[in-house]
Amino acid sequence: PDTSVAARLMAAPPSERLDVLRDEVHAQVARVLGRSPNQRVGDHQPLTDVGMDSLMAVELSNRLTSSLGVSLS
Q1: How many CA atoms lie within 13 A of 28 on its CB side?
Q2: Are 4 and 69 in contact (CB under 8 A)?
Q3: Single pTM value for the model
Q4: Cβ neighbours of residue 8 closer than 8 Å, sequence gap 6 or more
């Protein structure tokens, strides 16, 4: 079965889709920062406060574009 984020979003009930999306963003942020996936950044915590710089932000955008299959601007 397709385990992509897009497939998981489509398969999830509407009430759970935000959680699926949030988990993917948290996972990608952790990867870019070199953290384990269980070291989550707060939903409203500025990424610059946890060490993300502009190059990391571009990497995060690229990772999310790839994993979600959509273009982020």
Answers
A1: 20
A2: yes
A3: 0.86
A4: 20
From the CB of residue 55, how many other CB atoms can be counted at a distance below 10 Å?
9
Structure tokens of 39? 């070291």
> Over the stretch 5-38, which tens digit does the pLDDT of each residue have?
989 999 999 999 999 999 999 999 999 999 988 8
Determine contact, residues 26/37, Cβ cutoff 8 Å: yes
pLDDT at 63: 94
Residue corresponding to tokens 């999306």: 21
Which amino acid type is present at position 62? N
Q: How far, in Å, CA of 72 to CA of 45, rounded?
A: 20
Determine the residue type at 21.
L
DSSP 1: -
50-67 pLDDT, tens per residue?
999 999 999 999 999 998
For the chain, what is the total number of helices (H) and then of strands (E)? 3, 0
